[in-house]
Design brief:
about 750 residues; alpha+beta; Beta-Lactamase; Alpha-Beta Plaits; 4 domains; 8-stranded mixed beta barrel; 7-stranded antiparallel beta sheet; 22 helices; rod-shaped; binds ligand C2E; binds calcium ion
């Protein structure tokens, strides 16, 4: 059996995958969800950042342009104030500051586009549109080509009057320089900024990818890169928004790379600043964020799993402790009765003809216990357990069921008698603490049959077989056989029909009269039950032990008691006789004192004088540790019943205990009468009579069968005699004849 002793050798704790696995799965799923959430948070964050970046760019751009515009205003203002009389005075005055404002040169032109620049170039017929010629505010042009240097330039312009003539001041900037000053490369040059007008024409591009003039950013992107339709929509939307002068942030996939884009109106010339950051540019930041999140996830998972593992292991420890206390016998470290019953089932699952159950009882272990003491005997049991377990074929379950009783279920192809012989030999001599102990055991053997499934029944059969040997000494084992099977069948039969029998009044009482030892007149009777089943009379010895086991005796005794009370009431009425009757009360009642009330209720119902009722309790009831016999007997006595101690002399009750019990009668058991013809036992019965006398009780001697016995008993100082010699148990009607003969001593 694999299960055997796993509780002893099992030292490593195994995690129960059963529930750790689902937890890990849940954690992984949660991590993924959490991770997704973190990612979306990150994206949101990037959108926010890039939009902030856009606004910063706008502010910066605005302030730079405003400064430049202010410079131009200042020049025009001072011209208007009449500080200068010609162009060269103006140029002389402001040329030194040009560089500070990133201007390349100044120029003053008339309406036809003719004029001079601050660095001495003559300009002729420069195409001047109306926007340039604004007297109120500074105009900033879109990109155009310089006629002087061929560079891309932007022009700030404002009109004024010089000496009464309309003139316009140009302050030019190289677009190229502009880019460096105004538009930032973002994220170490991986990201960048476009400045476009509301038609999408690129004015400046910090990426340096657009070289030509008049390039439309939307067309450029769509033509140059591979943009899928669902992404194009986003560009269209931006286009629309820019036209409507609103701002926005979005991300878009272009050529497999994701870009975060923000567009802001800068408030000058309907120009827009567009910040573009590829995902790869922020990957480092993103990765760090993700790595931290991942680390946190792993840490939390680790904590959760650790807690799970801790809980699991502490559960296992707890379970193991529970298991140990529920299944392990602490003395032998073998399994206990629970264990045996639980694991034996596995043996019964499949059948083959080599399986046996052995019930092993150590003979006279009580004597050894008294001799050597409790601790030493525990050691004996321990060694015995070990020898039993190891001395038999390995496929076995060996357990100690209780006190000195062991049970083994085993499978063996060896001859079972040889196995039994070996067990008997192995354990006949045991050495504990250098003391050699000779043990004698009785082994009840049951060969497991095909249809055996109930371990309790099998165990009962092995016990039954074991009981056949006890006391015989002729053999040490007994195989459960047909005779036992039949008696078991009989038991089953009885159990099936007992309730019915009570209902059908199949249980009847007969009375065995008791006689005064001196004058031999009837003084009372003992009620005895008989079962009239079909045409046979079943004697109490065949069913009382079984009824005591299944507790049916509680019902039966009560029934018999009521019948006796009925008879007493009838006799009183019909014959005016008050005879004393004793009734047997099984010790099973004594477990709970409530039965006394039921007995009282019955005597009240039939109006019986309780001093006419003698309750016979067996001496063995007084020895049962679970029964508070003193309390119960006192209670019975307090209601007026008489108490008789039945089968006296067979139970070894202590004299001290007997002295305390308020007993009225002692019934000396038949065995003493039987042996009274032997001289030595004559002495024995003398002693018992002496003890009874000491206790001051009435003495009844039962089982007197012969004249010799009767003579002998009469020679002793006994009060009452009961036995076949005087009368066998008789039916109620026969009892009544005594009343008519008027032989009764009325008590
Ligand atoms: P017990 O209480 O010791 O009853 C005496 C038994 O000895 C009776 O056996 C009786 O018939 C038998 N007996 C009496 N005189 C002689 C004799 O001279 N020679 C021999 N050989 N036997 C004699 P019975 O009626 O078979 O009862 C057996 C036992 O069954 C009783 O032993 C008692 O323990 C139990 N019993 C009987 N009726 C009841 C009952 O109603 N309730 C309970 N709980 N037990 C009962
Ligand atoms: Ca009796
Ligand atoms: Ca008796």
């Amino acid at each position: 059996m694999k299960e055997k002793y796993k509780y002893i050798n099992y030292k490593n704790y195994r995690l129960s995958i059963k529930w750790i696995l689902p937890i890990i799965c849940i954690i992984i799923i949660l991590s993924f969800l959490g991770f997704g959430y973190i990612k979306s948070l990150t994206y949101k964050n990037i959108h926010k950042n890039i939009s902030e970046l856009g606004q910063q760019t706008v502010t910066q751009l605005n302030s730079s342009i405003e400064e430049q515009k202010k410079f131009v205003e200042t020049i025009v203002d001072s011209i208007n104030k009449g500080y200068f009389s010609n162009e060269s005075e103006i140029f002389d005055n402001f040329s030194a500051n040009l560089e500070n404002y990133h201007f390349t040169r100044l120029a003053i032109l008339d309406k036809s586009g003719n004029g001079i620049t601050s660095d001495g170039h003559i300009v002729t017929n420069y195409p001047i549109t109306n926007e340039f010629f604004d007297f109120d505010k500074v105009y900033l042009s879109e990109n155009r080509k310089s006629t002087i240097s061929n560079n891309q330039i932007n022009i700030y312009s404002k009109a004024f009057y010089l000496n009464g003539q309309e003139r316009v001041l140009f302050a030019t900037v190289y677009t190229e320089d502009y880019k460096d000053i105004l538009l930032r490369k973002l994220y170490n040059g991986l990201g960048g900024t476009f400045l476009i007008n509301d038609n999408g024409i690129v004015l400046i591009d910090s990426f340096d990818i657009i070289k030509d003039n008049n390039v439309n950013l939307y067309d450029f992107i769509l033509n140059k890169y591979n943009v899928q339709d669902n992404q194009k929509i986003k560009i269209d939307e931006m286009k629309k928004n820019i036209k409507n002068k609103t701002r926005g942030t979005f991300d878009i996939k272009i050529d497999k790379e994701k870009y975060f884009i923000n567009y802001e109106n800068i408030g000058i010339n309907d120009w827009y600043v567009i910040n573009v950051v590829p995902e790869s540019a922020i990957a480092k930041e993103l990765n760090l964020f993700i790595a931290i999140s991942l680390g946190v996830c792993v840490f939390i998972n680790f904590i959760i799993i650790s807690i799970c593992v801790y809980v699991d292991i502490s559960n296992q420890i707890k379970n193991r402790k529970l298991y140990k206390s529920a299944y392990i016998d602490p003395i032998t470290l073998l399994g206990n009765e629970n264990y045996f019953k639980e694991y034996s089932k596995l043996f019964l699952k499949s059948y083959n003809e080599n399986k046996f159950l052995l019930a092993i009882d150590v003979n006279k272990f009580k004597v050894i216990n008294n001799l050597y003491g409790y601790d030493f005997c525990n050691k004996i049991l321990n060694v015995l357990g070990e020898k039993l377990k190891t001395g038999i074929p390995s496929n076995n379950i060996t357990c100690r069921l209780y006190s000195d009783v062991f049970a083994i279920i085993l499978e063996t192809t060896e001859d079972i008698e040889q196995v039994l012989k070996k067990i008997y030999k192995d354990i006949s001599i045991i050495e504990v603490d250098n003391i050699v102990i000779h043990l004698n055991v009785s082994i009840g053997v049951y060969k497991i049959k095909k249809y055996d499934t109930d371990i309790n029944k099998i165990l009962d059969k092995a016990y039954m077989a074991c009981k056949q040997i006890k006391g015989t000494y002729s053999n040490y084992y007994y195989m459960f056989d047909e005779a036992l099977e039949n008696s078991l069948l009989k038991e089953e039969d009885i159990e099936v029909s007992m309730e019915d029998a009570l209902e059908k009044k199949e249980f009847k009482i007969i009375y065995q009269p008791k006689f005064d030892t001196k004058n031999e007149k009837i003084v009372g009777a003992e009620s005895l039950v008989r079962w009239y089943k079909n045409d046979t009379i079943i004697m109490p010895d065949s069913f009382i032990p079984l009824f005591e086991k299944n507790k049916f005796i509680l019902k039966l005794d009560l029934y018999i008691f009521e019948q006796v009370c009925k008879d007493l009431a009838y006799w009183k009425e019909k014959f005016d006789v008050n005879i004393r009757v004793s009734v047997n009360v099984s010790k099973e009642h004594f477990v709970n004192e409530n039965f006394i009330q039921e007995y009282i209720d019955i005597t009240d119902k039939y109006n019986i004088d309780r001093s006419n009722l003698e309750l016979e309790i067996t001496e063995s009831a007084t020895l049962d540790k679970n029964i508070d016999v003193l309390k119960i007997v006192n209670k019975i006595k307090s209601y007026g019943f008489r108490i008789s101690l039945d089968d006296f002399g067979t139970g070894y009750s202590s004299l001290a205990m007997l002295q305390e019990l308020p007993i009225d009668v002692i019934k000396i058991d038949k065995v003493f009468v039987d042996k009274a013809n032997l001289n030595s036992d004559k002495n024995m019965i003398n002693y018992i009579v002496l003890i009874a006398k000491q206790l001051g009780t009435e003495i009844v001697v039962e089982g007197v069968e012969t004249k010799e016995q009767a003579e002998f008993i009469k020679s002793l100082e006994c009060d009452i005699i009961q036995g076949f010699y005087y009368s066998t148990p008789i039916e109620k009607e026969k009892m009544e004849k005594y009343f008519i003969k008027d032989d009764t001593i009325l008590l």
